[in-house]
Amino acid sequence: MLRKIWAITKKNILMYYLKGPVLIFGVLFPLFLFLAFYIGRSLSAEFLIPGLLAMTLFFTSTSVSPVIMPWETQMKTLERLISCPITVRTMIFGDILASFIFGIIISIVPVVIGMVMGVGVKAPLTLGVAIIIGAFAFSSLGLLFSTIPTDLVSNVMMLSNLVKFPLIFISGIFIPVSELPDWGVAVASLSPLTYFTDIARFSIEGYAFYPLYLDFLLLIASAVLFLVLAVKLHERTLVRRF
Q1: Where does the chain have alpha helices with state H?
Q2: What is the pLDDT, as a whole number, of residue 167?
Q3: How far is the C-alpha of 165 from the C-alpha of 226, rounded, in Å?
Q4: What residue ranges do the domains of the chain occupy?
Q5: Percent of the chain scored above 90 by pLDDT?
Q6: Which residues form a coiled coil (predicted)?
Q7: Considering the entire predicted model, what is its pTM?
């Protein structure tokens, strides 16, 4: 099964990493959003880098997995794929792994930018584990968006952005959770991105709003929930793609 998952992952990497929507929404968009927030403000690099890292990991990990299924449906390659001796779960794990690797690789960039700006990582092991769990959770979330049985990438990206944009603004990236009113803290607690951002701030700034074990516990729970939902929904909607 692992060889089949890796074969699908390699196919996805070769076919989809350089697609326009992946590069625009996965790489360029978080960069421009960060610059729009940064320019004209006197904010410290220690505050900015955890937010940039969280935003980059979130956008990159959710940029590949949503577009694979509709493109495969549109190009009629999905029919060829399911005629092979593989299960839907194998396909889903292959899609998630391709998105996971993309998220991990691109998330190194803000860490390097931070080091160039003189920002050190106080807890590198904690940050590394959080990036791995976060990339898996967000990749699984991205695959949830493509459960709609459509061959139009634009429909999937519209739903994806409808969910992702509010999460970016309520997850402590631009305004720390500690500075939010009580209702804002309650809303931020609903977002899995909040817990990754909190871990990133702890790893770089040395401060976390939530207990660290709670951040990891809820991030792992989110990853499991998104994965189970993605598998169940894709198994149910796959036959409606033809």
Answers
A1: 2-16, 20-23, 29-38, 45-61, 65-74, 77-82, 88-116, 124-145, 153-170, 182-188, 192-205, 212-237
A2: 87
A3: 18
A4: 1-238
A5: 20
A6: none
A7: 0.87
